[in-house]
Amino acid sequence: MNPLQPPPTPADVKETGRIDAFSDGVFAIVITLLAFNLQVPSPAQADEVGLLTLLAQQWPAYLALIVSFALIGIMWVNHHRMFQFIGRTDQTIKYLNLLLLFSITLVPFTARLVGEYIQQRDATIAAVIYGLGALFIAICYNLLWQHLLRHRELFLATVDRGFFEGTTQAYWIGLGGYTVAVLAAFVNVPLSMGIHLALAIYFALPLRVRRRG
Amino acid sequence: MNPLQPPPTPADVKETGRIDAFSDGVFAIVITLLAFNLQVPSPAQADEVGLLTLLAQQWPAYLALIVSFALIGIMWVNHHRMFQFIGRTDQTIKYLNLLLLFSITLVPFTARLVGEYIQQRDATIAAVIYGLGALFIAICYNLLWQHLLRHRELFLATVDRGFFEGTTQAYWIGLGGYTVAVLAAFVNVPLSMGIHLALAIYFALPLRVRRRG
Amino acid sequence: MNPLQPPPTPADVKETGRIDAFSDGVFAIVITLLAFNLQVPSPAQADEVGLLTLLAQQWPAYLALIVSFALIGIMWVNHHRMFQFIGRTDQTIKYLNLLLLFSITLVPFTARLVGEYIQQRDATIAAVIYGLGALFIAICYNLLWQHLLRHRELFLATVDRGFFEGTTQAYWIGLGGYTVAVLAAFVNVPLSMGIHLALAIYFALPLRVRRRG
Amino acid sequence: MNPLQPPPTPADVKETGRIDAFSDGVFAIVITLLAFNLQVPSPAQADEVGLLTLLAQQWPAYLALIVSFALIGIMWVNHHRMFQFIGRTDQTIKYLNLLLLFSITLVPFTARLVGEYIQQRDATIAAVIYGLGALFIAICYNLLWQHLLRHRELFLATVDRGFFEGTTQAYWIGLGGYTVAVLAAFVNVPLSMGIHLALAIYFALPLRVRRRG
């Protein structure tokens, strides 16, 4: 950006390194613990109905796991992509990043909720809460991103304009997409979960492909 | 500080790096597991009362989560701030840091206690224990800080005087503040939780703003 | 490989470093939580039968723990071996690595399943699922490896031919071996678990020894 | 050691760095999850007996937590001390380190066992198993150390003789001490737990003090 921008000092590198490491830790724990929502059926019940039947009946838990793993995975890639070009941090980044991590740690809870209630009367409520959780993550990313856009001196000198434009666009699409997912949950729960998966696939595509589409 | 102070060797950097990484790991696990205190209501109960009502009744768990996430988050930022300028470590730092991490790992337990008991007869006991847990963390930080103040050769040469004075002052305020939070719990539990939140916000402010106030 | 291949930039190093760190985090959490499948017998029951008897009756849980710890440990060493020579990453590596980590996070679940059902009527189903889980991991490694083979410019310039040949061969043996373990589960459950252990020992041997054999 | 010993290459540094990071991850998870053995008493019971009484009755769980936190903490410092001077790794180190981490992951289980059974008839069995777990860790450290002693070329050139002698001596004392703790458990359970604590304090002392004593 600014050719006179000084390169990050060792203390800067250490500081951004610890934010990366801490965030990676939280992402890694959350993504790993999602699979702990899977229940092992009790042998007593399996003796009557058969283990395979009981495992098959747990399909909502598998669906919640897959959608949530994709959600967290994509969010980790996004975090990675954002922080990769940051050379310096300030206090605000730390606190907005903490808020973002807070939104991430809620996912195993909302995932369990959706897995447990998708076949119940209150499926809509569970899916709306799940969607609100994802929307909360998108809002946190936008808060962090808006702060960074106002402090471009925190970026490495090598970042180009296309990165800023592409990322801004992607984050607005995220806000819009998760709002649609929340609204869709009021109409049809599987549709809402499908939108979550579609958004994860969309965000997984490289920046260039997305902007061409 | 001392212009003749030699820069840290690669072995020093590796050593402090592992303390950072280990501490970040503990902070990340603790902060992530706080959200695992949230319970998914049983579908049987939800069929009678409604899922939304059951979730709303869990408000003490959400309160405990938010206060505790703020507490751990701030403590992580403090840890970060302290170790950022340390160029060398000794055995005492390792053990005092372990003691500090011990105090951090107790928070999910005291948070569950407060979440479970805030509407019960023994709410005061739970809030006092929660406050003592936070005070214990503050004491551990002070022990570590007092040791560092007596061994300024462990710091990088670039640290200035204001950092030492500001940090010392902040830690004394921490000790005082959490003592007040414990005492307040005997009088009024929500007041005590409010003081915890206020302290987190206070510590979140940058050093300069705090000293001006 | 290509003597003109440019060395990795600092941004490349940071990026591969975060993939390593995130993957190490997931592996570390999974391998640690395996031991949480061990149950502490209830004192009431122990008063009648004796603690030692109750602990001895848990042998399937110990077997599942040992086999699974070996499985995850070996998979971590393999991950390590693969990424050690990668100097640059692309988006596809990130997503294939996430898929691989997904397969890893399922192991505590399939391990609990096998530990719980090995003495039940449905032992075969549990062992087949355990084998399919391991086969899924092997497939993910192959997907990642095939991508890397097509993009050798991502490797450090120092990697030699023998590494590529040896690794390719080892991964095909993995695919074959875990397929045999799945098939063996239909015939004899302990045999299938034995094959899992044998495969872990095989992969633990250094490349050179394996190719000589 | 050997003045002609070449300095570690970047690939060596990356490799030892990932072993450090993975091990730190396992240590961090184990040490954090120890506190999850603490139970929040049920409000129903607390209404009758009082929360404070119920919490006080849990003293064996606190004892098990403190002894185990000290055990894992000291073991982490030891791991740190050993790997700090390693410049290069081989496959055997990786597998012996995995075995060591396996022994570490068993501690939350044996700690829960001792916490649950210290006031029961089978307290001796629980304490013996706890001691055997600690002895297993000590054996794993010795296996790793003996391998390193036979491959001193893996160490950085700066390590001096006193380090090798002091560490060897400390590890023999560990083996002997934990054997005594196991034997003591047959006679008196609190005595055995006291020996565990004394050993942790002994290992916490710096090398020089220990050798003078």
Largest interface: A-C, 33 and 32 residues
The gyration radius over C-alpha positions of chain A equals 20 Å
Determine the fraction of residues in helical runs of chain A and give it as a percent range: over 70%
Integer average pLDDT of chain A = 87
Per DSSP E runs of 2 or more residues, the count of β-strands of chain A stands at 0
- The oligomeric status of these chains comes to homotetramer
The fraction of residues assigned to DSSP E strands of chain A is: under 5%
Number of domains of chain A: 1
The gross shape of chain A turns out to be: elongated
Instruction: State the end-to-end distance of chain A.
Output: 27 Å
**Tell me about the biggest sheet of chain A?**
none
Content-based structural category of chain A: mainly alpha
| Total of DSSP H or I helical runs spanning 4+ residues of chain A | 10
Contiguous uncertain segments of 5+ residues of chain A = none
What pattern of helices and strands is seen along the backbone of chain A? HHHHHHHHHH
